């Protein structure tokens, strides 16, 4: 086959974003070439563009795109030929599989960190060559676009598994972006008594209810009222609010990235005296990724209604503008639609 060739969205340096023509490499033994069809844009991409992400986790120049789905275009030697043409999602964490962390299942903490769209070129280009064992087939009745939400859902699910929700919990989710909306959706797996989303944009109320939240507020959350608080806003103020909102003996899960070097003011004595569990969660594991794919393929979750804005790659500036500032309408996932699926 002819190697896929086409435009790629490349970050060359802080605030230096260009479209370049790229040719996808051929897959080697045990590899697959996947042509992306849908690529989500998220706040972490903005941090990469702006140069705000911890430099230990990004290498430039870089093709963006870590939330994505696509179709298998070519199969390398010793890989499964039956995957040719299949709709798939691909784990982005390129774990070594042999270090101490990988051996205990913490592939997100692999000591040889490498990740598509962060340290290795991502999916906003003509094609991505990946190890076949990282590729997961989507069920025939699952829209391939929904697969692009597996990555943020896996981030959320891994964090929830670590913080261990309890049936009957009163849950507060701080934030009203895609990660927060997915947190409200996924925490339902544990049968909470009530889920509240606290956001900043009133127009997000409809999306909050789409995510099965019981309530949405733009006001200050009640203090010391929640069994579990999930911080998904990506700000130091949100972390401080989370600690204030959790009850004695409660748990706080921090998922947001506030920016490299940013610090929150947390009263340490309150953490101790109120017996509060404060837990950060980085990325996702291979296990959490596989679990989200199972939930999606079985129809247990349907994140597709969270996609609100779709763009072709040629409209990348408008897509970034919408993600930064919105347009006054509800804004969930901003999605690039590529190749044959692209808007005409």
Break the fold down into its secondary structure elements and pairings.
Elements: E1 5-13, E2 16-23, E3 31-41, H1 43-50, E4 62-63, E5 67-75, E6 87-90, H2 100-103, E7 128-131, E8 135-137, H3 150-163, E9 170-174, H4 178-186, E10 194-198, H5 205-210, E11 215-217, E12 226-231, H6 236-245, E13 246-254, H7 268-273, E14 277-280, H8 286-297, E15 307-311, H9 316-325, E16 333-337
Parallel strand pairs: 9-10, 9-12, 10-11, 12-13, 13-14, 15-16
Antiparallel strand pairs: 1-2, 1-4, 3-5, 3-7, 3-16, 5-6, 6-8
Helix pairs in contact: 3-4, 3-8
Task: Describe what you observe in this structure.
The structure is a single chain. By secondary structure, this protein is α/β, with parallel strands linked by helices. It folds into 2 domains: 5-153 and 284-341, Quinone Oxidoreductase, Chain A, domain 1; 162-280, NAD(P)-binding Rossmann-like Domain (Rossmann fold, 3-Layer(aba) Sandwich), CATH 3.40.50.720. Helix content is 23%, strand content 27%. It has helices at residues 43-50, 100-103, 150-163, 178-186, 205-210, 236-245, 268-273, 286-297, 316-325; strands at 5-13, 16-23, 31-41, 62-63, 67-75, 87-90, 128-131, 135-137, 170-174, 194-198, 215-217, 226-231, 246-254, 277-280, 307-311, 333-337. Helix 4 links the parallel strand 9 (170-174) and strand 10 (194-198). The two termini are 25 Å apart. Keywords: Metal-binding, Oxidoreductase, Zinc. Its cofactor is Zn(2+). Residues 13-336 form the Enoyl reductase (ER) domain.
Short synopsis of the structure:
This protein is of the alpha/beta class. It has nine helices and 16 strands.
């Amino acid at each position: 086959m002819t190697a896929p060739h086409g435009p790629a969205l490349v970050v060359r340096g802080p605030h230096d974003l260009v479209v370049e023509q790229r040719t996808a490499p051929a897959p080697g033994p045990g590899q697959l070439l996947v042509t992306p069809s849908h690529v989500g844009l998220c706040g972490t991409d903005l941090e990469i563009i702006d140069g705000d992400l911890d430099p230990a986790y990004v290498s430039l120049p870089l093709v963006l795109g870590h939330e994505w789905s696509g179709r298998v275009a070519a199969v390398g030697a010793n890989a499964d030929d039956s995957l040719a043409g299949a709709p798939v999602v691909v784990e982005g964490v390129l774990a070594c599989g042999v270090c101490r962390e990988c051996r205990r299942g913490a592939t997100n903490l692999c000591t040889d960190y490498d990740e598509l769209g962060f340290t290795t070129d991502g999916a906003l280009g003509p094609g991505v060559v990946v190890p076949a064992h990282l590729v997961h087939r989507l069920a025939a009745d699952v829209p391939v676009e929904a697969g692009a939400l597996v990555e943020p859902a896996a981030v959320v699910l891994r964090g929830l598994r670590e913080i261990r929700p309890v049936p009957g919990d009163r849950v507060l989710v701080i934030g009203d972006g895609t990660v927060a909306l997915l947190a409200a959706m996924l925490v339902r797996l544990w049968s909470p008594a009530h889920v509240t989303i606290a956001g900043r944009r009133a127009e997000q109320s409809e999306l909050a209810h789409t995510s099965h939240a019981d309530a949405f507020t733009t006001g200050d959350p009640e203090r010391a009222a929640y069994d579990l608080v999930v911080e998904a806003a990506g700000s130091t103020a949100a972390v401080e609010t989370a600690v204030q909102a959790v009850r004695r003996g409660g748990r706080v899960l921090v998922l947001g990235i506030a920016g490299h070097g940013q610090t929150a003011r947390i009263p340490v004595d309150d953490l101790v005296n109120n017996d509060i569990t404060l837990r950060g969660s980085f990325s996702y594991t291979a296990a959490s990724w596989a679990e989200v794919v199972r939930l999606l393929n079985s129809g247990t979750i349907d994140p597709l209604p969270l996609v609100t804005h779709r763009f072709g790659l040629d409209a990348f500036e408008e897509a970034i503008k919408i993600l930064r500032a919105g347009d006054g309408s509800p804004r969930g996932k901003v999605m690039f639609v590529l190749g044959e699926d692209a808007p005409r």
